């Protein structure tokens, strides 16, 4: 099936995105790619997480809210735009790094368990086991949180960001039973699993087909999880390979009914 949404784009309001990450550019990309929905997901989270304080303090709500006004002024009848955020896992609290009051302000919310470059104790990184276990813990804590009802999707699950070694090593170290346990619960909670195409940047269709993400997503599908696709665009170039979303949808034999409600 053709994927006609992208629910993970950052604008230049995210300090890690560049000046080409604009609403205007994304609208032009959407038209070129035949997308009908764009979900804007600038970073937003609590400013007291060790390792990520400076990062999240640079994105207070008032800062991100500028986008809400920009989106409201867009007149594109064939395109639906959503004001969301990519929030964070709060390591000391073992919870989602957003309050209920803040969560209410967004159209959708993505939560990663894998920004381990910022939020995991640095001395865990050299240990594959500790790194894997941290992501499993974070994933489980997000599902168990009372705030989980606000979560639209788990962002790039188990794709350790800025990992100093091949992050797929960690995915390969998670058993099918462990994945099934987590994905059963994800499905039960009505939280979608994000298929984040950024991992496919330099991959051919053959490489995507034989990569470790596909069996992981297959397990999620078997458990009844719904999916949402995102490019994780931080500049204008991420959409150059967004056709990989269609490649993955094909490999997983996804149908409209496998997608999260918001992106249908
Ligand atoms: Zn992320
Ligand atoms: Zn992101």
Description:
There is one protein chain. This protein has 264 residues and is of the alpha/beta class. The protein has eleven helices and nine strands. The longest helix has 17 residues, at 128-144. The chain starts with a strand and ends in a 13-residue tail after the last helix. It binds zinc ion (2 copies). Residues 8, 10, 86, 232 line the site of one zinc ion. The site of one zinc ion has 4 residues, from loops.
Chart the SSEs and their pairings.
Elements: E1 5-9, H1 23-33, E2 37-43, H2 53-57, H3 61-72, E3 80-86, E4 89-90, E5 95-96, H4 100-103, E6 108-112, H5 116-119, H6 128-144, E7 153-155, H7 168-172, H8 176-189, E8 192-196, H9 205-210, H10 213-222, E9 227-230, H11 244-251
Parallel strand pairs: 1-2, 2-3, 3-6, 6-7, 7-8, 8-9
Antiparallel strand pairs: 4-5
Helix pairs in contact: 6-8, 8-10
The chain binds zinc ion (2 copies).
One zinc ion (ZN) binds at residues 8, 10, 86, 232.
């Amino acid at each position: 099936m053709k994927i006609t949404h992208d629910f993970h784009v950052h604008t230049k309001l995210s300090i890690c995105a560049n000046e080409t990450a604009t609403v205007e550019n994304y609208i032009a990309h959407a038209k070129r790619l035949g997308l009908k929905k764009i979900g804007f997901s600038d970073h937003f989270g609590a400013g007291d997480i060790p390792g990520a304080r400076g990062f999240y303090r640079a994105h207070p709500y008032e800062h991100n809210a500028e986008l809400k006004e920009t989106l409201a002024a867009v007149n594109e009848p064939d395109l639906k735009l959503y004001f969301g955020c990519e929030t964070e896992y709060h390591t000391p609290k073992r919870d989602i790094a957003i309050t209920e009051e803040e969560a209410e302000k967004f159209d959708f919310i993505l939560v990663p368990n894998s920004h381990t470059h910022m939020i995991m104790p640095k001395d865990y990184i050299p240990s594959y086991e500790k790194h894997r276990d941290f992501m499993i813990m974070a994933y489980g804590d997000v599902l168990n949180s009372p705030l989980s009802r606000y979560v639209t999707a788990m962002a790039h699950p188990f794709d350790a960001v800025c990992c100093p070694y091949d992050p797929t090593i960690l995915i390969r170290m998670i058993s099918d039973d462990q994945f099934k346990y987590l994905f059963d619960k994800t499905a039960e909670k009505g939280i979608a699993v994000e298929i984040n195409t950024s991992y496919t940047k330099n991959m051919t269709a053959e490489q995507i087909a034989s990569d470790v993400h596909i069996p992981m997503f297959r397990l999620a599908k078997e458990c009844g999880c719904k999916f949402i696709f995102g490019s994780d665009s931080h500049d204008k170039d991420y959409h150059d390979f967004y056709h990989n979303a269609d490649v993955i949808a094909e490999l997983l034999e996804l149908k409209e009914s496998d997608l999260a409600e918001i992106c249908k």
